[in-house]
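Following up on my earlier thread - several people asked me to post the actual chain instead of describing it. Fair enough. Here it is, all 223 residues.
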Amino acid sequence: MSKSSTFLVGGTGLFRRGLGSFLQDTDFTIVAEYDAAEDCIAAADDTAEPELILFVSSGNIDTTQQAVEDLSDRFHDARVIVLSGDLSVDELAASLRAGARGYLLGSISKEAMVHSLTLILLGETVFPSGLANAWMNGGLSASRPAADRSLGRDLTPRESEILDCLTGGASNKQIARDLGITEATVKIHMKSLIRKIGVSNRTQAALWAINSGFSQEAERTAA
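Reply from S.P.:
Thanks for posting it. Predicted structure:
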């Protein structure tokens, strides 16, 4: 695999140097770094377009959303990933709406980061698998209105099982193994449940399940 060119945007210079060292000896090469999104965009004509842009969040949701939108608009082929110090469902949702292809935590291990970046390059959208657990344990709060729980009433038992697995960040392969079915069957059910709850992809389906309280309701029903 050839090295993937990567920009680092935001955070302090010290943090960016540390992140650069973190990614040494991986398939991701840091080719440029900038203090802010506007600096990166201003220098765009003088640099080749990267494959990945890692944006370091300051914790301000509006700033993060605007930065992701601006970077995505300027670098059409690059995949923008937000790196945050804290797990925030509001910032995650804002980042995805703005076009981010990933939302990672600063506490992520090197192996997990490399794996996540590789998946993003392959077209996946990646967010913390611990999001569901944090939500259900009361560790997160959201100002957005809850999703319409009634949309999930038409789901079959199997679709409900798969949706519950999604909230834990499970891959199709893992879901198939856990439920004793084939990956092809998982994909069929996934397509159906995504249509029924009115979202566009598996990431949005997982967020819908978390925001609607679907996982808690499924646990109570099972009990």
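Residues 19 and 170 are 27 Å apart (CA to CA). That should answer part of your original question.
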